[in-house]
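Hello K.,

You asked for the raw outputs rather than the summary table, so here they are, unedited. I folded two proteins back to back in the same session to keep the settings identical. This is the first:
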Amino acid sequence: MQEFFVPLTDEELDRLDTLLLERVPEEGGAEDADEGILDISMLDGFMTAVVSGPNPISVSRWLPVVWGDYEPVWENEAQIQNTITLLLRHLNSIADALMNAPDTFEPLFMERTVRGRTFRIVDEWCAGFLLGISLDTPGWRRTPDFDALVEPMMLFATPDGWEKLRGLPEGEVEAQQDRIAPAIRKLHAYWLAQRTPSQPGKFSMETVGRNVLCPCGSGKMFKKCCGAGKTLH
C-alpha cells in the first residue's frame, strides 16, 4: 500500500509524459476528437484541481478525462496497473504537499531556453487546472473570491486572457505567473478547512474500490476489469 504514497522520480514523470503524448496518433483523429491531457505539466495542473476542490472526485470520474478519446493501447495487464499506480502516486504527492507542507508546493511548469535564457511556460498547467475545475464548476463557484483567485490561470489558458497578456512587458508577465502558486495554496486551504474527516484526500487501489467503474475508463466494473486481472483494453 505504501507504494501509492511515494513521489514520482524524474524518470517516472518522463515516462508518464511520453505516454500522454504518444497515445494520440500523429496524424490526428476526428476534427472534434477529445485528445485529453497531452503532457505532464497539464496533468499536474489537472490533478491539483482534483485534490483542491470542494468535493471528492473519484478516480473513475477523472481518469477518462485524462485519456479523452484516446485511451492508450495497453500491451498487458501489468502496464495498466503500473500506469494507474503512477497516476495515483503523483496525485497523492500533490495532495501531500498542499495538505502538510503548502509552502513547498510548486506547480510543475514547463521551461524553454532561448539564447541562454530560461523562461517558464505555464499555459499547459493552467489549462489542466481549469479542466479539473470543470469537473465540479458549481462547487468551485462557492469559493470566496473565486474569480480573483482563478484569474492568473485564466490569463494563461483562455483567449480573453491571452489578449490581456499581449503587449505586457516581460516583467509583468512573470509577475502574473508568480501569482499562480499562492492562489492555489489559498484555494486548497479554504476547501481543506471545509471538508469532513470522512472525505478522502488521497487515493490507492482500495479507494478505487471493486464495485465502482474501473479507473482505466473501460466502462466496466473494477472487479470485473482491472481488479480481476484478466481484461486488457
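The second followed immediately with the same parameters:
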Amino acid sequence: MDCTLMRSELLAYYFGTSERAADAGAHLLTCKDCLGAYLRLKHEIERGAGPERPSVAMRERLRAEVADTFRPSLSRRLRAWLERPVPRYQSVALAAAAAFVLAVVVVKRGDPPTTASFAATGALTDSARASPESLDFY
C-alpha cells in the first residue's frame, strides 16, 4: 500500500470502517512514518487535542438531548417505583401511620354525647343496648 493512500485511510482504519483494513495493518507494521502518523491521530482523537473538539455549550446541549431522549416516561417511573421492594421499616412506618389515622377517625366519630342531648331526651339511655332502657339503676 502506498503511503499517500495510507494517510487518507488512517481515520477509517482507526474507526474500523476501512475496506482495506488488512492491507493498512500490514503497511503500519512496515512503515514507521505511517505508524507515527497513525499514533498521532489516535492520540488526538482519544485525548481530545484535535481541532474538532466540541464547545462546552455543544456538549451541554448534546447531554440534554440524550437525557430527554432516554428519560423514562412518568408511567414507567411510577411503575418502577411501585414494583420496587419495600424495606421493613417503611412497612412498619406505614402501618403506624394508618393506625394513627384510624385512631383519630374513631375518636372523632365516638364523641361523647353532650348535656344538651341529655336534656332533649329527659333521661339517660344506654346506647349499647338494642332497646332504650333507663340508666337510673346505675
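The helical segments are 3-15, 21-30, 32-47, 56-70, 74-83, 88-109, 115-121.

Happy to rerun anything if the numbers look odd on your end.

Regards,
P.
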